[in-house]
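seq as requested:
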Amino acid sequence: MKIVDQLDLSGKRVLIRVDFNVPLKEGQVADDTRLRASLPTIKYAQGAQARVILCSHLGRPKGERRPEFSLAPVAKRLSELLGQEVKFAPDCIGPEVEEMVRELREGEVLLLENLRFHKGETKNDPEFAKALAKLAEVYVNDAFAVSHRAHASVVGVTEYITECAAGFCLAREIKYLSQLLTSPVKPVAAVIGGAKVSTKIGLLTNLLPKIDKLFIGGAMANTFLKALGLEVGRSFCEEEYLEEARRVLTEAEGAGVKVYLPVDVIIAESQESTAGEAVSIKQIPPDKAAYDLGPETVSYFAEALSQMGTIVLNGPMGLFENPAFAKATVALARRIAASNAVTIAGGGDTLRALKEAGVATAFSYLSTGGGAFLEFLEGKTLPGVAALEKRS
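struct tokens:
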């Protein structure tokens, strides 16, 4: 696929699909990480004397115009980051928006209102895609986080704009994740957490031939422990995935991949508990549940990770939203960040955990995608990327 700096943007109307799906609090942007990730592409287009049109979704308004999902606060914060006014359109298509685009001068930026106020966005409706395409002469996708969605602003619009390219953020994502799958610095370790095995089976299956060590934490570890015949009390466990967990362990053994599971956990009566108790995985009582990895497991994992060439992290190691069960997530994040390995992390919960641990900037690469990150590492073709390749 072409990259934005391979195109002539001078004087052209450039529609950039960005990912401004950010948290809002009291009418203001609470976390501007995704806005900052888009700045290199936006500033490049401005410097190339383009007339810049930005489009994004925010939340899930389900095709309805709902004020709490307006991108107006995002326009305000982006204006501060760019040091100039970002104009804001009351809609993303239609005569009024088209007039605002016509009035744009070179180097100016216009942010369109939430794409998902229209049902045609998520349905990849051709008429909605045409209406978007009508606004521009060049299309740039810089939103990796939505590139696994066949939506109008990601896929449909490329059918009606001849010049299409990837933005710098999207291109960088593809570069790092492709390198992880095809030519990583060895040996390679995958540290996978989160709640459900069901959402990670594809990821685990695709990674096994490419890694040397697999570390399993989070609530999903309970399913693996039970698959091995251990009792997990009231811990969250996907009983219907016990056989899948056994299959992963068998395939790992066949591929020569060493699997690391918890040796101790932090148990408590409920997820609202303010403190827990460390016990062996063989001593989880029937009336309590595991909510975090224990200190012995943290040391065990950290030691085994010490000589890795590449480490990919996805998912928290425990119920990190509760400070009582965040210790393993924070401790392992800090140990991974301090290693000499190429360190890659992705997923919304993962990035939030890294920020809380104070080590987000210490990782080699942080993926802005959640579902897209997982699907890419599962070996799936992302519709948004395929659409750009088709146009190159």
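Residues 33-47 form the longest helix (15 residues).
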